[in-house]
Amino acid sequence: MSPIRPRNVLRIGPVQVATYYDGRGRERHTAACTAPRCGFSADYDSRPAAELAARTHRCAVR
Ligand SMILES: [Zn+2]
């Protein structure tokens, strides 16, 4: 299991956006696609950037 405790988990289409603190106490925002064969996952410095990435994600798996 990961030691990361995500919060504010939001689902936009197939993409899940979550906010968590990294090991140094900094806030990080991640967008990760839940489609089995997509594999899209990225970290962002700001929540709006992560949500924008989720909204604009064009999933390869349809
Ligand atoms: Zn995808």
Explain how this protein is built.
This protein has 62 residues and is an alpha+beta fold. It has one domain (7-56). The chain is 16% helix and 39% strand. It is built from one helix and four strands, in the order ββββα. The protein has one helix at 47-56; strands spanning 7-12, 15-21, 27-33, 41-44. A four-stranded antiparallel β-sheet has the order 1-2-3-4, covered by helices on one side. The radius of gyration is 12 Å and the shape is elongated. The chain starts with 6 loop residues before the first strand and ends in a 6-residue tail after the last helix. The mean pLDDT is 90. Bound molecules: zinc ion.
Secondary-structure topology with pairs:
Elements: E1 7-12, E2 15-21, E3 27-33, E4 41-44, H1 47-56
Antiparallel strand pairs: 1-2, 2-3, 3-4
Zinc ion binds next to loops.
State the low-pLDDT regions, or none. Answer: none
- List the helices and strands in order: EEEEH
Strand content: 35-45%
What is the CA-based Rg, rounded?
12 Å
State the gist of this model:
With 62 residues, the protein is an alpha+beta fold. The protein has one helix spanning 47-56; strands at 7-12, 15-21, 27-33, 41-44. It has one domain (7-56).
Keywords:
single chain; 62 residues; alpha+beta; four-stranded antiparallel β-sheet; 1 helix; 4 strands; 16% helix; 39% strand; binds zinc ion
